[in-house]
Design goal:
heterodimer; A: mainly alpha; B: 80% helix; 0% strand; elongated
């Protein structure tokens, strides 16, 4: 018995380390690449709408004031510090998401499923549904200045919904009975039937046109970023497996 | 006793790195996207809104 343990210990821990190195390396490359592209898409399509909304939040512009307001104000250009921080944080968030997604990819691979750049796109879309679309279905991406209640309550609901949706998608993809698929449907519906914490009254100063455009753009860029993240994650995971360090 | 240790090591080979990666990943998302410390909040403000995190 003692001999078994002595044999197992040196082989097991390098395997564990190798596995973690493979997950970490794939996640850093995939997350940074998808995060940077996603950040550029955000700066082109989402940030101008946010900056426009901030003019109403700070009351530089007033909706339904005495005079009609131009829908095309000067919102400024690229801000090195502010937009630089956005690029950095978007890449960080995507590295975090990539770690989670690739960890689950490795679990699926252990069960015999093939992970490549092509199948990775489906993983990416599933990640988007779990972390962006499902929470956003009841807590829509909102412009600054929108009415809201305690951020802590909404964060708890956000996390619960994302975890429930992620688990549901795993059950839909890999479940083998109607019990599992039924549980998945319940997990997808429950957070929205229970309801997200919502404001008692509306007080947002931003025109609804901007709020709607912001939510649409945020979700659209989110889908693009996640699809790329899944594709890159599948690619790097597959490549790191073919050429272990 | 010794056999139990052997089995634990063998089982842990596949799962431990997966669990650790998930915790690390969710930790990064929580710190960058959800922690309300003002410096972090201000720096990550725009992407928090864009990624649909509750921000204010």
């Amino acid at each position: 018995m003692t001999r078994h343990m002595m044999c197992a210990t040196p082989t097991a821990f390098p395997a564990t380390k190798l596995m973690f190195t493979r997950i970490l390396t794939s996640a850093v490359f995939a997350g940074a690449a998808a995060g940077l592209i996603s950040a550029l898409l955000l700066l082109v399509f989402v940030q101008p709408v946010l900056l426009h909304a901030e003019l109403y939040e700070t009351q530089e512009l007033v909706h339904f004031g005495a005079e009609a307001v131009s829908a095309h104000p000067d919102i400024g250009g690229f801000d090195l510090q502010r937009d630089g921080q956005s690029i950095l944080f978007q890449a960080l968030i995507f590295v975090g998401y990539a770690l989670v997604m690739i960890a689950f990819m490795s679990l699926a691979e252990m069960q015999g499923h093939v992970i490549t750049a092509r199948t990775g796109v489906i993983w990416g879309v599933a990640g988007f549904v779990a972390f962006h679309l499902a929470p956003g279905f009841s807590l829509a991406p909102e412009v600054p200045g929108a009415a809201h209640i305690d951020v802590g309550e909404r964060q708890v609901w956000w996390w619960a919904t994302a975890v429930a949706a992620g688990l549901a998608l795993w059950l839909i993809a890999f479940g083998r009975s109607w019990v599992m698929w039924g549980a998945a449907i319940a997990l997808l519906l429950a957070p929205h039937l229970i309801g997200a914490p919502q404001a008692e009254s509306f007080a947002g100063p931003v025109p609804p046109e901007l709020g709607a455009l912001y939510a649409a753009r945020a979700l659209g860029v989110g889908l693009a970023g996640w699809a790329l993240l899944g594709c890159f994650a599948g690619f790097f995971w597959h490549r790191e497996g073919a050429n272990p360090a | 006793m010794t056999t139990k240790t052997f089995e634990t090591v063998q089982t842990g080979t596949g799962i431990l790195p997966v669990v650790f990666a998930i915790i690390l990943g969710l930790g990064i998302v929580a710190i960058t996207g959800h922690v309300q410390a003002s410096t972090l909040h201000d720096a990550a403000h725009d992407v928090r809104h864009a990624n649909g995190f509750p921000c204010h």
